[in-house]
Design a protein that fits this description.
Blueprint lengths: L13 H5 L2 E4 L2 E5 H8 L3 H9 L10 E3 L2 H10 L21 E3 L1 H7 L6 H23 L2 H11 L6 H10 L8 H8 L5 E4 L4 H13 L4 E5 L5 H7 L7 E5 L9 H10 L5 E4 L8 E5 L7 E5 L11 E5 L7 H8 L8
Helix pairs in contact: 2-3, 5-6, 9-10
């Protein structure tokens, strides 16, 4: 859960957030202590949350600033003074801030939880989406960054050339932006190994389709399964049919989920070793009923290459679903 250090946290405006975006190593980044402030964490707790999910933050998503970069950033910014004795910023002589790239900032959405985190993530997504539109449509943002880099020294020419050759174009939008802009349109969605963020977004968007009910059939569940389901509309009834194999979901983990997302109770039913595959059923029994066949459990989404396919004839599965719903309740570990 978020460790809010200030009950008076407010949602920052686009302009306020934009002021916290810097250009370092030719990339637009945000610094850990600014992100911690935005999300209502202390810097230490914020970075601990990231370390707990470090597999989601490769070097091109998050990197630690060098001493020269810290010094250069303090000189370039009139509104920010970085020095090792500035305790208000949580800095000390043995600490160098971390910078998060655009992809790293998107990944934070899957790590930080709570109402404030959700609202701030939306604000950040909108900001970077707007910046990307500027970049692809009229080069405005790139031009501003180019002037900034040119004003430094002649030694930065190589860095400027790298920006020019790697400049983001409209057709080069990330998987996340394509999913964010156009939704899930394909009958089958392929998720490659390592695409954790894409996997999370796919599951969340599937669950947000539901108007009345969601049924998840999966023998392997854990807190990540619940975090995906938390993105569904609050009025939607959720049922998980599972034998809860492996380490499994524990009662105390479900209790923590209920505290974080009050009013989102989930019904648990045993699968009784009757189903091998994994399914997601949206709005069971209605005309809008949709069934997805999942190649892997949602808790493992992105760990290996897999796919999620929309089944063409949902009616054939109604008897199976009816029989499973009649099974005994599942008691968590």
């Amino acid at each position: 859960m978020a460790n809010n250090t200030n009950d008076k946290n407010i949602i920052l405006s686009e302009h306020q957030i934009e002021d916290k975006v810097y250009v370092i190593r030719g990339m637009q980044v945000m610094i850990d202590f600014d992100l911690a402030e935005i999300y209502g964490y202390t810097t230490k707790t914020f970075n601990q949350q990231v370390k707990n999910n470090i597999e989601k933050f490769p070097d091109d998503f998050r990197f630690q600033l060098t001493a020269d970069e810290v010094h250069e950033l303090s000189l370039r910014s009139k509104k920010l003074t970085l020095n090792v004795s500035d305790n208000r910023r949580g800095l000390h002589s043995k600490y160098a801030p971390y910078a998060f790239t655009e992809q790293g900032i998107y990944m934070l959405m899957t790590v930080l939880r709570g109402d404030l985190a959700t609202k701030q993530s939306i604000a950040l997504i909108r900001l970077f989406k707007k910046m990307k539109e500027h970049l692809s449509n009229d080069q405005y943002l790139f031009g501003a960054n180019l002037k900034l880099l040119t004003a430094q020294t002649e030694a930065n020419k190589a860095a400027i050339e790298r920006i020019e050759t790697s400049m983001v174009k409209h057709e080069d939008l990330t998987d996340f932006m394509r999913l964010f802009d156009i939704g899930i349109q394909n009958e089958e969605i392929l998720i490659h190994k390592g695409e954790y963020f894409k996997a999370d977004i796919v599951y969340q968007k599937i669950y947000r389709k539901a108007k009345k009910s969601i049924i998840v059939i999966d023998d392997y569940i854990d807190p990540k399964t619940l975090q995906h389901l938390a993105k569904a509309k609050k009025s939607v009834a959720v049922t998980i049919i599972s034998d809860n194999k492996g380490m499994g979901l524990r009662q105390n983990e479900y209790d923590d989920f209920l505290k974080e997302y009050p009013g989102r109770e989930i019904s648990f039913i045993k699968s009784g070793k009757r189903v091998h595959d994994r399914y997601i059923i949206i709005d069971n029994g209605t005309k809008e009923m949709i069934i997805y066949h999942c190649g892997a459990s949602s808790k493992d989404a992105g760990s290996r290459t897999t796919s999620i396919a929309k089944l063409q004839d949902a009616k054939e599965y109604r008897n199976m679903i009816k029989e499973l719903l009649a099974n005994p309740k599942l008691k968590l570990k």
